[in-house]
Design goal:
single chain, two-stranded antiparallel sheet, 391 residues, mainly alpha
């Protein structure tokens, strides 16, 4: 049964979950600071710096990360078996790249050149390349999906849904900017003042519009590769009852509070807490999420989204690294205890967060769809075998 045909979901529970993940960090901040955290709402720049690199803490967090990455790279160690071969994706007689693939590549390539180049004669136009770079990249990726998936892609089949995704991506990322203040800015934007103040927030909104589309299209692209579609589809089945799911929900709610109190130790919970709250709420209401197929041992939807986000992060971080001083949205990280061994601007352990960021975007997307009444299916075609079902 498709998620489009599920019974109506009581919206009041979804609204309560969204309200909780917004209000609870404020409650934690009140317990810690007696009000808002230092520097709340102030951009750019940092008010306080976190503790510096700590070898003991780095080792502890590394030992925590090793099983996570082992699960990603060596699933057989965790009980995954060779998958049952599904039906092949039908072949087209003649495949071709659509026009937006070529235009996206051209716009992205030119924007990339200008953003990294030191072309002073271009003036302020250098500061406006991040958005066309990413939209060129998004259309380029969608063109690859179109080519590999028999003409089925976001742009070709669901342009209105892509527009909805683009618009909702803005508050979707602003929410994490909001959470970032409660951990005293794990990342910050030192060059936002390159643009006039009123225009800065408008331009930032445009840049944030690219987050969900790029992640979701990477997911669609990975799904066109048969080994990727099968890699995590025959693993251990975990079927949690409602009491266990309720426990997960309560754990997520607690994380939203303690992250604001012990932010140096639990800063990583800003990626985990919201996901647990939203995913558990949806599960208790009987709504499909990428975690539901795990009941039958199919981890593919969740893992493909996690890996898609990781792939996407490499371009995020690479383009960011060499974009200074021509990119007002250039960001730097300042993570407690682990800020060393950088890949681009990101501490190596920080890439673990991307594995959680993709799934949290997806459950956020599903929540929005249930609240606003639109389809949230990312497959558009049975050929992708994305298993977005309620069974």
């Amino acid at each position: 049964m498709s998620i489009l045909t599920t019974k109506p979901t009581p919206k009041r529970y979804l609204l309560c979950a969204l309200l909780a993940i917004i209000v609870l960090p404020l409650f934690g901040s009140y317990l810690k600071w007696g009000g808002l955290p230092p520097g709340f709402g102030l951009l750019p720049g940092k008010v306080m710096s976190p503790p510096g690199f700590d070898l003991a803490m780095f080792i502890v967090l590394t030992l925590t990360a090793i099983p996570i990455w082992s699960f990603v790279v060596f699933p057989k160690l965790f009980g995954f078996k060779p998958a049952v071969q599904g039906p092949e994706v039908p072949k087209q007689g003649k495949r071709y790249f659509p026009i937006w693939f070529w235009l996206g590549g051209l716009v992205g390539g030119l924007s990339w050149t200008v953003m990294w180049g030191q072309f002073d004669w271009l003036g302020d136009i250098r500061y406006l390349m991040f958005v066309p770079l990413w939209w060129g990249y998004i259309f380029f990726l969608d063109g690859l999906v179109y080519y590999r998936n028999n003409g089925v892609s976001f742009v070709s089949c669901k342009p209105k849904l892509l527009l909805i995704c683009t618009v909702l991506s803005i508050p979707g990322w602003y929410y994490f900017e909001y959470l970032n203040f409660f951990v005293l800015q794990n990342w910050y934007y030192p060059y936002l003042n390159l643009l006039p103040s009123p225009f800065t927030y408008f331009w930032s909104a445009l840049t944030f519009s690219t987050v969900w589309p790029s992640v979701f299209i990477w997911y669609q692209l990975l799904a066109t590769f048969k080994p990727m579609r099968l890699a995590y589809s025959n693993g251990p089945a975990i079927n949690l009852g409602n009491s266990a799911v309720t426990g997960i929900l309560l754990s997520g709610l607690l994380m939203m509070v303690i992250t604001s109190i012990w932010y140096d130790l639990f800063f990583w919970m800003i990626w985990l807490g919201p996901m647990l709250v939203m995913a558990a709420t949806l599960a208790l209401l009987g709504v499909w999420t990428p975690f539901k197929p795990i009941r039958q041992g199919n981890w593919n939807p969740m893992m493909m989204m996690a890996i898609a986000t990781l792939f996407n992060s490499l371009t995020w971080e690479m383009w960011n690294y060499w974009s200074t001083p021509n990119n007002p949205n250039f960001w730097r990280y300042d993570l407690p205890y682990v800020h060393d061994l950088l890949i681009f601007e990101m501490p190596i352990l920080g890439f673990s967060g991307y594995l959680f960021f993709g799934p949290v975007c997806w459950v956020f997307w599903i929540m929005c769809g249930k609240l606003l009444g639109f389809s949230t299916e990312l497959g558009f075609s049975s050929a992708l075998h994305l298993n977005e079902t309620t069974k």
